[in-house]
Amino acid sequence: MTEHAGQLVETVLPRVPVRQWVLTLPYRLRYRLAWDHGLTRAVLSVYARVLQDFYVRSAHGLGIGRGRTGMLTVVQRFGSGVNLNVHFHTLALDGVFTERTPGRLQFHAATPPSDEAVGAVLGAIRYRVGRLLARRGLEPGAEPAAPDGLAEARRFWRRS
Asked: What is the largest CA-CA distance in the chain?
């Protein structure tokens, strides 16, 4: 991942500071995301919106309005031991762009996030993903709305 991230920073992303964010997930959710790609995209969307909001609010706190950042996320599905471990690696432009004059962008670098700020980002992600799961009937203890495809396949192969 490190080599791939370096290549993206050097050849694809603009020449501005970049911060890597990694979101790991609870085991129960990793398993679900392994076979529910729609849910994976929805969780990724929540995560990306929270990061975007973090950068916009941070810039606003410095008197920079109407800023936007960019990010690129790779969904990694396995850990180094080839174990199931769905998680997200995100390269975020570490700051915001504003339109200086029509068609001209200016980058404003962010200050490094404090431990409290990272905790607030994680708390927002946890809360919003929890709401997403509740809307889909997937909160802990709830009966799943759709059958578990992996468990069904596993039962099939055990009978064979």
From this structure: 67
To which residue do tokens 């909160």 refer? 139
Pairing of strands 71-78, 18-23: unpaired
Contact 120, 129 (CB under 8 A): no
Mean pLDDT per 10-residue interval, the chain, length 160 residues: 74 88 91 90 97 95 91 85 84 93 91 96 96 88 59 61
pTM (global) more than 0.85: no
- Smallest CA-to-CA distance from 90 within 143, 32, 47, 37 is with 47
**Distance separating alpha carbons of residues 34 and 30, to the nearest angstrom:** 6
| Beta carbons of 108 and 67 less than 8 angstroms apart | yes
